[in-house]
Amino acid sequence: MRFLGIGDSCDLGALYLRLLAEGHEVKASVALPICHDTLAGLVPRVDDWKGELAWLRQAGDEGIILFENVAGQRGRLQDELRRDGFHVIGGSAYGDRLENDRGYAQEVLQNIGLSICPVRSFSDRPEAFRFIADNPRRYVLKFNGGYDTFIGQLQDGRDVRAFLAGLAPQGKDHSLETESFILMEHVEGVEMGVGAYFNGEKFLQPSCLDFEHKRFFPGDLGELTGEMGTIVTYERTRRFHDLTLGRMESLLREGGYCGYINLNTIVNEKGIWPLEFTCRFGYPGYAILDSLQTTPWSTLFHSMITRARTSFEARGGFSCGIVLSTPPFPYERPQVDVPVGLPVLFDENLTDAERRNIHYGEVGLNNGQLVTSGAYGWTLVVTGLGGTIWKALERANALSGRVTIPNVRYRRDIGSRLIAGDFAKVERLGLL
Description:
It is a single chain. Helices cover 28% and strands 28% of the residues. The protein has three domains: 2-92, NAD(P)-binding Rossmann-like Domain (Rossmann fold); 118-185, Dna Ligase, domain 1, CATH 3.30.1490; 190-428, 2-Layer Sandwich (D-amino Acid Aminotransferase, Chain A, domain 1), CATH 3.30.470. α4 packs across α5 and α6 packs antiparallel against α7 (158-166). The protein has an eight-stranded antiparallel β-sheet with strand order 14-13-10-11-12-15-20-17. The two termini are 37 Å apart. It is an alpha+beta fold. It has 14 helices and 21 strands. It has helices at 13-21, 53-57, 74-83, 93-100, 102-111, 125-134, 158-166, 238-243, 249-254, 285-290, 297-306, 352-356, 389-400, 416-428; strands spanning 2-7, 25-30, 45-46, 63-67, 87-89, 119-122, 139-143, 149-151, 181-185, 190-198, 208-217, 221-233, 259-268, 271-278, 318-325, 345-346, 358-360, 363-366, 369-372, 378-386, 403-404. The longest helix is centred in the last third of the chain and has 13 residues, at 416-428. β1, α1 (13-21) and β2 form a beta-alpha-beta unit.
């Protein structure tokens, strides 16, 4: 088969390596110059992906385009390529709007019968200040196309107001004409997501459940990062899928969607409260799922574009994924001046099975040595599998300790709150 990856920073590098190992042809386009060294020497690179379309078309149903992200009207481009007869997995223009326009997404979720948190959209900060003064609450602030999320702690919203007052205007780098953000009332509970592959007509089964850990430091302290680690499972997921993401099936079909999609929620005794969509491959989510999926990626993707099957094989139990980061993470280079090209070394006694649980992120080859690369310090993802969350965490931590990278940082408590009682709460709520 032939695969053409299109993205900004080679976010699907570990997946491309899997496809290459399966014996398929892979070419990747990386738009950001600062990321051109990511997976250098490991994944074939092309400067102009449009020049590869004829090569892809020659493969017929065995030629697939993989889109990595939703930036820059990528969904609209995917729709156009599908109309031109290409097989595309990633999302759609409709998916872009679900992810990027948070207020619209909440309306969609309410219309399919889900209980949404009270939410208000704004494009004017003084209006938001007046709203907070008139409606003092604990709020979550989320921007469309800018600083992602700020979770307020004070019950009167003063911290959110102060944060907004001091933050530079957001959204210009994402081609938004005006600043756009929402204020959502904070809801206490267990944060959990549900994700599934959608083949253009139906969801593939099983879906997954995930429990993300986004704070930089153990104990959920520090900055909100893209993600520091996640617990995922394919076991006992159908009920929660049917109550939430499954209700989107007809809308995704009408919206021309084809790819992975995730809905993040808060669950408590009062119900399920949807927060936001991820309408693309999740990072590091796809790498953590890779450890549980026994159906090869190429078989999964081929079945999606041909709609030959609506299920795939996955292991039971849990996968614990840990992001091994290096500076400037969670910020960006070159705004933070730190070295790049540092050596990435592994315990020489690692087995093939253990090496399969190490998923490359921003790394590349330099004179035969694996080194750090890219813009963000998103270096590796390490996974551990287990019949319990504790065993999966134990194995992920043990494997992480056998990787040597200068200045590496990672959390060793991924899943600890689930172990301490949050997963039992989800069970008691009857959601599994």
